[in-house]
Amino acid sequence: MMIVAFDEDRDWYIQGWVFDEIVGSVPTGMLRDDDVDEHLRPGRAMGLLDLQAREPDRARRIITALSAGVVGRMRTLDQSNDKYVEFYEGLLRTAAAAARELPTGHNGAHSSS
């Protein structure tokens, strides 16, 4: 089982192989090796990717990459299988909602004059 904790209210509880397939569907270059590599070890019975503990810019990049992986994975699904389509659409909704709640970063808020 893999848990991706976006924030206090939003998580993905997914099987490890599903997480592996999502990460495998992320376009090249969207993730750095140290973003999720420790969560791809097959010997882990339970994993936690806590995005709340990451810097907002890094969390946003990882969320964007995982969302792209979900979209890539959805392209390979049998679209007539409503159960799987709805599951992956739910993952996308959760990630999008969490991304909207992240702090916006620097954007001049801390600039010195």
Q: How would you sum up this structure, described in words?
A:
This protein is mainly alpha-helical. The chain is 46% helix and 11% strand. The protein is built from 4 helices and 3 strands; from the N terminus they run ββααβαα. The chain has helices at residues 16-24, 33-36, 56-74, 82-101, and strands spanning 2-5, 11-14, 47-50. Strands 2-1-3 form a 3-stranded mixed sheet. Strand 1 (2-5) and strand 2 (11-14) form a beta hairpin. Helix 1 packs across helix 3 and helix 3 (56-74) packs antiparallel against helix 4 (82-101). The longest helix is centred in the C-terminal third of the chain and has 20 residues, at 82-101. The relative contact order is 0.19. The model is unreliable at 107-113 (pLDDT under 50).
Which key phrases capture this entry?
3-stranded mixed β-sheet; 3 strands; mainly alpha; 11% strand; disordered C terminus; globular; 113 residues
How would the global form be characterised?
globular
The gyration radius over C-alpha positions equals: 15 Å
The percent range for helix content is 40-55%
| Number of alpha- plus pi-helical segments | 4
- Which structural class best describes the helix and strand composition? mainly alpha
SSE order: EEHHEHH
Strand order of the largest sheet: 2-1-3
Rounded average pLDDT: 84
Low-pLDDT ranges:
107-113
End-to-end C-alpha gap: 49 Å
The count of strands amounts to 3
Largest sheet: 3 strands, mixed
What percentage of amino acids are in beta strands?
5-15%
SSE layout:
Blueprint: E1 2-5, E2 11-14, H1 16-24, H2 33-36, E3 47-50, H3 56-74, H4 82-101
Parallel strand pairs: 1-3
Antiparallel strand pairs: 1-2
